[in-house]
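Friendly challenge for the regulars: who can give me the structure tokens for this chain first? No prize, just bragging rights.
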Amino acid sequence: MGPAGLRLFDAAALRRAMAAAASSPRRRANLNVHPTLDAPVQRMLNVFQPGTYVRAHRHDPGCFELFLALWGKAGVLTFDDRGGVLETAVLKPGHTWAVELAGGVWHTVVSLREDTALFEVKPGPYRPLEDKDYAPWAPREGSPEAAAVLETWRLLVLDREEPRRGRSPR
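First reply, four minutes later:
Bragging rights claimed.
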């Protein structure tokens, strides 16, 4: 932080986060902007590579999440209590560049392009997710079923983004 309270985030920091995500076994990385995990407002850069699996989850009813698209392209899906898809959105700069999720909503994020960077804001303090916060119908990260579910979600988001040839618009 500068002497007058100005903190800068440059292209080099974004490139480092992208490189970290590309080399991570989980295919994602984050850069916390908030000073401590107990900060009342959590702010972070999340970088996702295609193939990362974010298990569907939800947060406390009062804990919204706001995602801003900085780079790349991501799908956001919301689900009912049985895993049925309720809504999808595609985030990319210059188009739908932000989405806010209400607390208590089952959701996931799917990377649709290399080096997808989303800035996230949500109320703190940080609480690691517990099993009860993960959707019981969503496979565990690293399980053989996770890759198949991820591909289903990816194709669903892409299908809803643009009608394919031979299909009528929805």
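DSSP finds two helices and eight strands in the chain. The longest strand covers residues 41-48. Your move, everyone else.
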